[in-house]
Amino acid sequence: MHGLMMDRPLSIISLIDFAAQYHGETPIVSRTVEGAIHRYDYRRAHGRIQQLANALVRLGVRPGDRVATIAWNGYRHFELYYAISGMGAVCHTINPRLFDAQIKYIVNHASDRLIFADLTFVPLLERLAAALPRVERYVVMTDRAHMPAIALPNALCYEELVEGESPSFDWPELDERTASGLCYTSGTTGNPKGTLYTHRSTVLHAFSVNLSGGIGMTCHDTMLPVVPLFHVNAWGIPYSAPMAGAGLVFPGAKLDGESLFSLMESEKVTITAGVPTVWLGLVDYMRKHGTRPSSLKTLLVGGSAAPRALIEALEQEFGVNVCHAWGMTEMSPVGTSGRLTRGMAGWPRERIMARKITQGHAVYGVEMKIVDAEGQRLPHDGKAYGELLVRGPWVTSGYFEDAEADRGAFDAEGWFRTGDVATIDADGWMHIVDRAKDVIKSGGEWISSIAIENAAMGHPDIAEAAVIGVPHPKWQERPLLIAVPRKDAVPTRDAVLDFLRDKMSKWWLPDDVVFVSELPHTATGKLLKTKLRDQYRDHVLPKA
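The chain above was modelled as a monomer; its predicted structure follows.
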């Protein structure tokens, strides 16, 4: 027997419709590429989004067409998110930090018809345009006064495209499983792989993110998403913030500690989200200038494991609650949240910190399991570790037009293989031990490179650390610590190893330490360990 309830499709455009009607005066503030601070609100954004949708129709964009963006976090990029998806096309966000060959591949693989780009990325597109035959037009996201001379075919000015269009658009009623967005992985091995989101998956993800166990935004919050709109929908914030009626502050291209702090203070930001490297820069700035945030309450950190030292600094020195989260492009992306639960209120600080350095518990809608090498389920006892698999209504069911990538991506029950090695305890808290390809196998036992990195980051003279396994004649592999010293610091190998000695098992202790000026990163800011393994594959350990 079916129930008797209305069957209304979940639609992305309903989020901005809701925000405009019930939170119309809530501000959206952007630091623009041109330099000025732009201010408007949900009501005015709603009108411009409809103008943009009319312009897209005039340019011949049809339902299902891929329309690409390559832009910073700003109000025009926010408008594109809604206008493209709302009319039934697919918003394809491109990560400008990818290599040229990767950008060529994903634009051609997605068959993008239009590309909207911030001024910053015009030279990039001029360099690549000849290799992008399917792109019909380029739209530069600026006004006429800042429009440069451009060597791009059929180039248009964003503001000229929008002005004169009607601020009213008859949005189509789409099947909620209609494709809405497309985002490619960074492709550290092989070509990038595309995840194709739907209206249904996106709205359900926004609901879950806004629960108190997720980000938990309300209409009283002002959110500054440092995590980029050009990758994984800025963790869904462009959708969850309007749903909650929360204010938005977009930082543009300036992500240094000083620029972020000044924006947080001037706009009274209460919640922000980004990767650990960004927050390390913010902490350094606040320490140097003897200041602390006046309104910031919650800081979300994800993308890679946050070092314990960073969490402690933000909470104990600056009074900001840190919430660890985890997810993947293929998961829209949020899968877990480190929000403390009710029963932890009276826990001692050390026990709470032991939870905060994990990746948290699943948000509603996501299921997790860990399996051994044969695919058999392992117990959730906080001790057994194995490959982490997930499923849920906003987890991919297959890559965009990539049957080869689909092979091996799912188990026999249809769960998605994350490629992470993790433990899950009896309360459901998940702790990533390592990426499956990064875990170090020494003498038949596994060593977590992430755990050693996080411990090393607690050393006062180390700014960043990476750990890889290098060949050993007896133990197969042993850990090598590669560290970037802080400015003006001169740490020594022995001093670092002495610091680590009481923080891990003796057999986990790195066999050697190498100091470098910088570490390689992927387009999404993660450590590029494939390059490090290649660079140090012939490194001779002192005791080898």
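The mean pLDDT is 94.
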